[in-house]
Each structure stands twice: as C-alpha cells, then as structure tokens.
C-alpha cells in the first residue's frame, strides 16, 4: 500500500471517528462513569498502581487493555482502565485514594492517542491537588505536549508524521529539573513497523512500557523495605 493511500485511509477513518465522537452516537467504552479494575491479590505490600486510558472510540487502543492485564499478571499490582474524556473522573478517583493511604503507592499513568492527551490532563489535575506521579507513559500523544512538575518520569513513545491528530509528538516539561522525559521515536527502533492505530499493540512498545513500570515498582519496593 502506498504512503499516499495509507494516509488517505487514515484521514477517512479519523473523520468518521470525529463525527461519531462529537455526535455522541457511539460509546464503546460502556458507562461514562465506569472505571474498571481487574482483580489482583489483596495485599498491603502493593508497591504501585497503574491507570490506563484508551483513545478514540476504544477501537484502536486495545493495546492499553493488554498492557493493563500484563501488569496485573506480572507485577501483581492494581491496574485500572478507561477511555479518554474521563480525565475528571480518573483524577478524582486517584486523589481520593491517595489521601486515604497511610503510605501512598507510586502512581503510573498510561495512555494512547487521545488517551495519552487526557492522561496529561490527569497529571495537571493531580499537580493542582499536590499528588505526585512516579511515571507517565504516553503513546502517540497528538496534541497535549506540556508535562507538569509533579511528574517524576515520562516515557513518550511516538511516531511522527504529517497528518494532524494521527501523528505523535514530542513532550516537554514545565520544569526539566523535576521531570525527566524520554522521547522515543519508533522510527529509530529495530523491528517496529507501526502506524497511529497499531503502535500501542506493538510487542516491542509493550515490552518497553512493562520494563519501565517494573523499574518504578522495584523502586517502590526498595523505599518500603
């Protein structure tokens, strides 16, 4: 398939997505107030919590669900999932839980596309509430690019392009002395051939994110020891 034809298809799909989203005719995420949590063992030794967010209609971000399930099975920590436009609900959920914990566990936010944009909004809301974020992972964020100073570490995985809203962007920090950002262009990675709709499902990308989460969780365990 030629690059011109591929971009044409992407434009058509995105136009359909905008039409359905704005009209409110389709909501594939279930109830807007639903915030799903997969079962994890009930333990006080949990050293992190992961919040994933799908983009678009939820059709093209299923890699976020795969990641959520992998975190639970491999790390044995709570992992929650929702779709973009729920930044306010997710923010309230995290803030309420954070201030109820005697020893708050590290917070990890992960999102794809519009979900990545909304996770940056969540980060800003948490910054206003004085809640720190150990790790923010954005996969092809398409508009929001400024990260607040309550975020300690950012892994931004993106694929640049020429089609607005279908091309990932670099992120930058409000305060680089407080926030470390790794901007990873997938074009520089071997064995990764993806586009905006498949980048979140790439095994290489998934493994990169899981390794970074594992590192944060391991650090949390050391602090509790």
Task: Note the topology.
Blueprint: H1 3-23, E1 36-37, E2 49-54, H2 63-75, E3 79-83, H3 87-98, E4 107-112, H4 114-128, E5 135-139, E6 146-147, E7 153-158, E8 172-173, E9 180-185, H5 203-224
Parallel strand pairs: 2-3, 2-4, 4-5, 5-7, 6-8, 7-9
Antiparallel strand pairs: 1-3
Helix pairs in contact: 2-5, 3-4
The run of helices and strands is HEEHEHEHEEEEEH
Number of domains: 1
**Major beta sheet, strand line-up:** 1-3-2-4-5-7-9
**Proportion of residues in helical segments:** 25-40%
SS summary, helix count: 5
Radius of gyration: 17 Å
The total count of strands amounts to: 9
CATH class group: Alpha Beta
Largest sheet: 7 strands, mixed
Looking at CATH, which topology would you report?
Rossmann fold
CATH homology group? Alpha/Beta hydrolase fold, catalytic domain
Indicate the CATH architecture: 3-Layer(aba) Sandwich
Terminal-residue CA separation? 54 Å
Structural class given helices, strands, pairing?
Answer: alpha/beta
β-strand percent reads 15-25%
Q: Give the overall pLDDT as a whole number.
A: 83
* Uncertain runs: 15-34
Shape: globular
């Amino acid at each position: 398939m030629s690059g011109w034809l591929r971009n044409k298809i992407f434009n058509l799909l995105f136009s359909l997505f905008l039409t359905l989203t704005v009209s409110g005719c389709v909501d594939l995420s279930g109830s807007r107030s639903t915030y799903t949590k997969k079962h994890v063992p009930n333990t006080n030794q949990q050293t992190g919590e992961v919040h994933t967010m799908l983009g678009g209609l939820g059709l093209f971000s299923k890699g976020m669900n795969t990641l959520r399930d992998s975190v639970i099975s491999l790390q044995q920590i709570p992992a929650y999932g929702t779709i973009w436009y729920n930044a306010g609900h997710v923010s309230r959920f995290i803030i309420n839980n954070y201030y109820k914990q005697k020893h708050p566990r590290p917070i990890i936010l992960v999102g794809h596309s519009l979900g990545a944009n909304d996770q940056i909004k969540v980060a800003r809301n948490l910054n206003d509430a004085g809640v720190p974020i150990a790790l923010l992972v954005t996969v092809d964020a398409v508009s929001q690019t400024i990260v607040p100073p309550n975020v300690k570490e950012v892994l931004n995985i993106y694929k640049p392009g020429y089609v607005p809203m279908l091309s990932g962007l670099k992120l930058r920090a409000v305060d680089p002395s407080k926030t470390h950002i790794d901007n990873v262009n997938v074009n520089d990675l071997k064995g990764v051939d993806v586009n905006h709709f498949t980048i979140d499902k790439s095994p290489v990308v998934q493994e990169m994110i899981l390794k970074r989460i594992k590192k944060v969780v391991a650090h949390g365990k050391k602090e509790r020891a």
